[in-house]
Amino acid sequence: MAQSYVQVTTTTDSRAEAAELAKSAVAERLAACAQLVGPVASTYWWENEIESAEEWMVLFKTTADRFDELATLITDVHSYDTPEIIASPVVAGSLDYLAWIAEQTEPDEDADEPDAD
Known about the structure:
4 strands; N-reg_PII/ATP_PRibTrfase_C; N-reg_PII-like_a/b; Alpha-Beta Plaits; 29% helix; Ion_tolerance_CutA; Periplasmic divalent cation tolerance protein
């Protein structure tokens, strides 16, 4: 069966938390790449009120097979009670880029964690 790819989106209220989520996901090989976008203006319902907030978006590039583990990491690290975790299927893409995603998200039991320089 061919590999399936997804782009996973979450948002948070600080650039620092967005960067922490991105680095954690890439370090654990749950995402090949994570991009920070922001700030973005969000408007949403929360506890029966319309809220507005400035947030940072994180876009993770990964395989569908790694989604559940990535979603768990986001939930565990995220400061929100109910973080946004949305996976959008990648319908098409550069074959070289998609192969790179698959290679970078392959679990590597023996690899040491990269230096945090």
